[in-house]
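#struct-pred

JT: dropping the chains for the assembly here, can someone run the whole complex?
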Amino acid sequence: MKRKNKLFVEKIKTFSEGKFGVSVRKLTILNEEAFILYIQELTDGKILSDSIIKPILQNGKDTMLTIDKIFSSVIYIDDISMDDDENKIEDYILKGKSIIILSNSEKYIIANTLKIEKRAVSAPQVETTLRGPRDSFTENMDTNLSLIRYRIKDPSLRMDNFVIGRRTKTNVAVVYIEDIANKKHVDEVKKRLDEIDIDGVLESGYIQKFILNNTFDLFPQAGIVEQSDTACQNILEGKLCIIVEGSNLALVVPKTFIEFLDTGDDHYENLYLAIFSKMLRFSALGIALTLSALYVAVVSFHSDILPPQYILAIATSRVTVPFNAFLEVIAMEFITEVLREASIRLPQQVGAAISIVGAIVIGQAAVAAGLISPLMVIIASLSMMCSFVAADYTIMNPIRILKFMMIFITGIFGIFGFTLGFTFIIINLCSQTSFGIPYFAPIAPFNFQDLKNYIFSDVNLERKRPKFLNTIDKTRK
Amino acid sequence: MNESLTNRQIAFIIFGVLIGYGVMELPKNVAENAGTGGWLSLLIATAITIIFAYMITYLSYVYKNKTIYEYSERLTGKFITHIFMIIYIFYYFLGFTMITRVSCETIKLTILLKTPIWVLSLLFSFVIYYAVIKRLRVIARVCEIYGIFIIIAALLIHTSLFTQGKLINLRPFFVLEDLPLYFKSTLNMIFPFLGIEILTIIPFAKKNHKKVFKYITLMIVCISFFYIMIVESCISVMGVDEIVHYNDALYATIRRVDIPAFQVIRRLDGIFLIAWIMAIFCTITIWCYGAIVLLSKLFKKIHFNLLAFIVVFMGYIVSQMPTTYDQVKKVLDYMSYYGLVVMGIIPTILFFITKVKKYDKKMQ
Amino acid sequence: MIRKCSKLLIIFIFSLTLTSCWDYEDIDKKSIAISIGVDQVADKVQFSSEITKLIPSQGDTEKAQTANVYNTVSYGKNFEDARIHYDAINPFPVFLGVTRVVIFGTDYAKKGIESYFNRIGSIYDYRKTLLPVVSREKPTELFDIKVEKDISVGFLIENTINSLANSGKTLYPNVGEVLSNIALDEVGYVMPYVGIEHGHIVYLGFAVMKDSKLVGVIDLVDTDGVLYLLAEKPILVEAIPDPKKEENVYSFRTAIKKRKIKTNYMNKKVVINIDLDLNAALRYQYYTQPVSDKKIKKLEEMISEKVKEDMRNIIKRSQKEFQCDIFQFAKYFRAQYPNIYKKIKWEDAFKDANVNVTVKTKIINKNLADPNAKKKY
Amino acid sequence: MIRKCSNLLIIFIASLMLTSCWDYGDIDKKSMTISIGIEQIGDKVQFSGELAKLTPSKEGTEKAQTAQIYHTVSYGKNFEDARIHNDVINPFPVFLGVTRVVVFGTNYAKKGIEPYLNRIGSIYDYRKNLLSVVSREKPKALLNIKVEKDISVGFLIENMINSLANSGKTLYPNIGELLSNIALGKVGYVIPYVGIEHDHIAYLGFAVMKDSKLVGMIDLVDTDGVLYLLAEKPRLVEAIPDPEKEENIYSFRTVIKKRKIKTNYIDKKVEINIDLDLYAALQYQYHVAPLSDKKIKKLEERISEKVKEDIGSIIKRAQKEFQCDIFQFARYFRAQHPNIYKKIKWEEAFKDAAVNVTVQTKIINKNLEDPNAKKKY
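RK: done, full complex below.
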């Protein structure tokens, strides 16, 4: 009986040396001492004193307190439990819990007094939309889960919790609706999350790297989501949302190529605007990838594709330019990429101004100095603007890289190289799978219904959930 | 490895195989053999192809998820199957190399004058190798996307060609006395229809039920209308006498037309080139895939990717061998007769054996 | 103590280096010479050149306009003398890094241009990839021509020769190659020959230089032979009349597939065997006639015959008229028989060397045309 | 192992490809020909070209201004020779993708333009929908005219013929159509004929080509007949004098409603029936005079009569003077009787073919005017 107590006392002794940053509070009540172990930075001092120390001291004045009595009738905290395993004490304390040990008791009480500073729920920065709720995810796990929970009040909403990272022990929650999400996907995600063996997870990006099926795949297979309503939309559709403690961007898995271009507010606007903005985004994606390459193909290889007036106009505008078209395009694209990177890295006040000023001033000066043809400045800035169009910016990163590949191959083979470069990208896209679902789903293995629903993205027309997800509960209505 | 494709993907694979290099000199062959009444011989050729296609689909339909190797082994025994396999492999390999070579030759003579041939076919081989090692399902998906793009581009181009052409060039539509000529000319109109036999290597799964026949015949009819549209629009622009002089008849016609209505793309050769190179890519990838699959059936031990590398590498070497353009053309002419054997005779033999031995009843 | 004076030392060295930057000079503070003309007038050497005028013209728009050009002329007993007179005129030090072309007048070329080549080889900022050209008229006349097609005469000549060389119709010998030929002194070399016709600067053909002295000119029409021998990738057009019907001409574009030059030395006589494999592509016929295989064979022979004819009489001309090995066969002979080469005197050996040329042509395509298509009606 | 060597292979090939871009040539490094003139002088072929000068004029304004023009001339015994002499003048490789018009001189047209048409058909960067024109004066003179109305002579001619063709007053035959007529063999064709009138470039009518040789000229005035037969949508103006009062003229604009050409072959003679339905719209009367229905009937007959006479005379002229089927009736005959066409020789058959023309006109509107309104006072 006494053995367990002796271990507890040793534990208290080691902690009280103050090496671990754990503070020990001794309370003497009637005939015995009670010890409260907690980490200063992680506990809410007010709760500790009001709902633990005060009641113990008051009740301890006149009655004999045993551990069970304290547990059941003294402490006011809601989340409270009992345990007797001594080496779990450290974990509980590190998790921000406080431990109450009586000098002669065999068990100890674990009370959740966690309090860390958290950002208020603010408007989305990454995925800003015109119409749509403003509350986006924050770094705090509970707020994120509460944002989802209050939107989907479905009993079968499951939030499986995982602890990943030997040292950081970050909580990762996989949120899905049990009778919609496809069993195979859920198990696959769980299997991969369990397999992760790493010392620390700091952002959802880490998790994303692990659940890819091949690290060298060019296109992202998990979408990021910052707005809680888009997250709930995906969960309702049958996808899984992975929320990582300490990161404000949740992951949505599995995600196909065209869903990266689908913003939340398409579903709220009227039908025609949704269709129009979808077409706009697709053509912008195409322009971002191919416009510079086509400029090189037309100016330097087969310039008789254009009618005569256009050829003469381009030729006269390019006369003073010392570089050939290929180098000019590479230089201009490089400048626009540098500007984009600079505008992100610079602090907020300076950043926005720099990118616009930079693009115009450099463009204008380059044209005035006769280094770049005016047409090229237009093309470079247009393709830069087009690359901001996608709702989920992660799809645009590979496009920016592939643009250079297309320019190089067109610079060598003209239209022939252009077509084969484009084919190379299409093959790569079609061969990729995101959790078993073909990446180019509604287009490549063609399904008219899904494609229609995707383009219209109108809730009352959409009777069925996308077939490629093959969810358990098929119908929406 | 489940290689099952949806009916729609099978139809688009046939579209990808048929529409390729044959389209480029189709107007010339038709005009040379059958004059302005060529559309009739095209229809006759389509009818024959539909019959062959029906037979091959029936075979694949009866022997679910089996390729020709398996069900011909069942029907005709090991030895004959090996002969068939060698015939098919050589046919696919020859097709793959010669079409690559003749397309690179045409691309060199039309748009990239100073680029050497070996570089063009090297780039082709790279992309084809990348496509082939991704296996049939990815090729089917690519063919689906490209099929739609090619159809849209073709409709745009050929309707505008019709507006520029003269109706009088198309007449006389039908000359009674020339009827035997039309039948005779279907013989050398086989080349554009070569490719149906690819169905033998596509294993049908349960989901390819009865409707697959409808899909395939519908696609072949749509392809034949596609061909007739091309031939009639080219003859309407160039006239029967002029078009026989150009081996790249379709490209010559497109370079001859200037549609003031589309302001920027008034010269259509930009769109046409992209669509045509995509079509060539689909054809060559599927022919190459055919050769590799059958080879992998014979040499089970060698890993598929290694086999693919060998076939593509050998194909590249063989495609550099012929020195002049006319040699390649001669090989392609023999290919069309060889194609008759592969597309016609062997499937009919297997079809009759199945019917005679009533295997199809047993398999149900 | 060392600490104290080391600081002093650093300051002193620092100030020294700051004040005197030796090689520093802005590009716009230099008079940039675009092309140099060298000619012999009586006993004086004449330097004439085109220098870019960098003063912004009156309508000063911030758009950088291409430089326009002014000409200068200076005379002197020898190069150094002429150069001093030349410097005396220019406001800024002369910068030769941009020079595109050196034009030698005919009289100077006749006297010998080796001396100026060595000068080019040695002066620091002269680029060795400079284009040397011999001109029929005087360089000063050439520079006085009003040029609308290009920025200046220098650019025009260099662009013309460059575009012709890229399309395989002439040679683009740069100073480096000429210097190496001079070093191998038993051989001559050819240089582009330009002149003025109807107010246009025109490439007339090749100037043949023996011991760097102008000995003759090869007209444009018969430069084919030289190109088949010397050019890297000559792409030439041969117009072959139809054997039966004279006025139907077949136009072929020929490209070299393989060129082998073998020399051997038999009973005191040098034998040079040149064999050439040509790929010919029939571009079009004046009047489309069916072309049977037999006729293809016939045409192949006629092309080989014509090309052999061209090469043979250009070599005969270089043996008889110019009497010098302008095709640098010496290099091949020395490569194959180094010891014999040391013994014999190559100039005379070359003069009476017998040369046999074998040409095989193969018509590879008919430019996607099918002349023998059967007409329906 | 394969993985390792395949990486090596890829790097090697990538670097190889990067260094040598074979077909690379920027558009502004090309001398773009706007129009080409071909003339036969003695036994030499003369190419005179009009090229776009891309060097911006001295006042380099900000907006891209239209290109200026410069001219080149070159001679040669055949096209290939003339082309080389043309290349030696231009600083950059010649680019023919922008060519607007090909001008044939009269004596070259007389000798036969088929060779040059085949050349256009085969050269890669020639656009086949080029306009070809025969000029009365020498092409060199035509191209050197100072033009203020348009950028250059080439653009001027092309825009002029194009606008006339769009308004149905002339034909716009591009090279493609001419080549298919030549391939058809037994027919002639007409090409626009231009010349210089009081130093303005003017469209003079049609040049008639038999076996691609110039045999005659149809003046502008009597081209109506040709347009009624060949143009797709001719819109011509007919001035018809009032039957009673001569000097009051009615001006009609006529449009074709239906045009049917039927041919048949009766006892060894070809018979061509052309029937034509015209819509005529009265534009105005010189002197406004009331117009009764009877008079409208009368005017309709007069119009049909005039058009019938125009067409009849031009066909008779084609049969007698030019003796060749310039209206390509052969196509209609072949379409309707293919086997007879195989048997007979069309040139002779056409010469003595019986042609009957029937024209019906219908006056559809009087341009919203009411000439027979009764005046009150």
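JT: nice. Chain D has two domains: 27-219, 222-377. Chain D touches chain B at residues 2, 13, 17, 22-23, 124, 127-129, 174-176, 179-180, 182-185, 328, 331-332, 334-336, 338-339 (CB under 8 Å).
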